């Protein structure tokens, strides 16, 4: 066939298209995994669903592509236009289905299947095109194609977390990827193989690609308005602050006249009007005994620190939180600083921005009280912070006679809650179990976490632990006045937690995590 360039140059141009298309395809996969993890939770499950469905669909696409090999140029042109449109819009549609319908699993599987079929059909068609340019041995051609495909996947896999996600976000990043995909596919067909097309098909493919690019450009112009509308649909109309840090999305909601609700990574972390119930129950039983040096793992909102600072004899409060954006907000937002009583302005507070596991490995200072105010153990990213190894590190920095208090997820999920308790015992701690009802934090998992109302009842399971002994669950004589906790309510909370007890639970370790989302 007659090409506008030499056969060798044409071969390299097709391989360049393979490279670009492979990079775009992997970005689509990673974007689906990232967004599904944020919207649905449990990164392991979402990654498994997306990748397994897409690999299966790629096999289906390879089989279906056999019917297009006789018209490979036209087939590839239509294929890349469809892939650019579907892949580019996938993030917006997935987010929209969650925001307005409340369910995104069906959309996730649908996009995984569709994108997988389209990606799977690429290589057979490209193989046909490159063989029409050059009649080299088939083995060498296959090797070249797969080499370009794998290198492109590497570039796409690195570009997504280090360039697209931090600079553009999921929505704009997916739209830009779709545009690049459309340009690469259209250029190969409409320029390199234009003499292989009839005039009618050249016009049709040109119009299709222009339409795809116009749709992607229009969607990109609407991203900010779309995000604002979707955020209102998810969080309500009273969004006060919405920022995306390098770790998660942080949202404050509520009218200016009342305490704010805090959402971290889409999960209700603090319900402003009654958060004191949780934080009083979390902190004050652990302060019964020595408490001059306090370590708070998590708790970047400053609310646990607020409770510890109510004791005049507390000398230092060390807060270790992964997300500097949460800490900045807790220092600066008027509603949140009023809620935490300006805890970060107290000279006794020290702040470290770090992963709690890594921080414990590197520090040897001893603490009288350790408050573990971390996300639920059922969230995959938090599993290591509820492991036997993690509690071993915590035990190493706990002073003699000290206490560790752990937020262990709701007792309504008893397998998870009592696995945390079994893991603490395996690390050498004695434990006392209790829970707090109506505590202003939200459960993880499911769209309902975004729609927590002021009247709903939540359940937070807590565990007090001490090295080598079972700690007494109660309040110390120097406990400041509390709004909700008393000795009687603690006894009732302990009895309620014990009624959910499950025996025979195995401890969770780094190599064998036992928590379920």
TrEMBL record:
Catalytic residue list: 373
Membrane topology listed for this record: Multi-pass membrane protein
EC class: transferase
Pathways involved: Amine and polyamine biosynthesis; spermidine biosynthesis; spermidine from putrescine: step 1/1
SUPFAM superfamilies reported in the protein's UniProt record: MFS general substrate transporter, S-adenosyl-L-methionine-dependent methyltransferases
InterPro entries: MFS_trans_sf, PABS, PABS_CS, SAM-dependent_MTases_sf, Spermi_synthase
Catalytic activity as recorded in UniProt: S-adenosyl 3-(methylsulfanyl)propylamine + putrescine = S-methyl-5'-thioadenosine + spermidine + H(+)
Transmembrane segments: 12-40, 46-65, 77-100, 106-130, 142-165, 171-193, 205-223
Domain of life: Bacteria
Amino-acid positions noted as binding spermidine in the UniProt annotation, renumbered to this chain: 279, 301
Disordered: annotated segments: 469-493
Pfam families the record matches: Spermine_synth
Binding of S-methyl-5'-thioadenosine, residues: 248, 321, 355-356
Compartment annotation: Cell membrane
Keywords: Cell membrane, Membrane, Polyamine biosynthesis, Spermidine biosynthesis, Transferase, Transmembrane, Transmembrane helix
EC number(s) on file: 2.5.1.16
UniProt xrefs under PROSITE patterns: PABS_1, PABS_2
GO molecular function, one term: spermidine synthase activity
Domain PABS: residue ranges: 220-455
Gene3D superfamilies, sorted: Vaccinia Virus protein VP39
Its job: Catalyzes the irreversible transfer of a propylamine group from the amino donor S-adenosylmethioninamine (decarboxy-AdoMet) to putrescine (1,4-diaminobutane) to yield spermidine.
Family: Belongs to the spermidine/spermine synthase family.
NCBIfam families for this protein: PRK03612.1
Quaternary structure (record): Homodimer or homotetramer.
Name of this chain's protein: Polyamine aminopropyltransferase
Species, as recorded: Streptomyces xantholiticus
Encoding gene, per UniProt annotation: speE
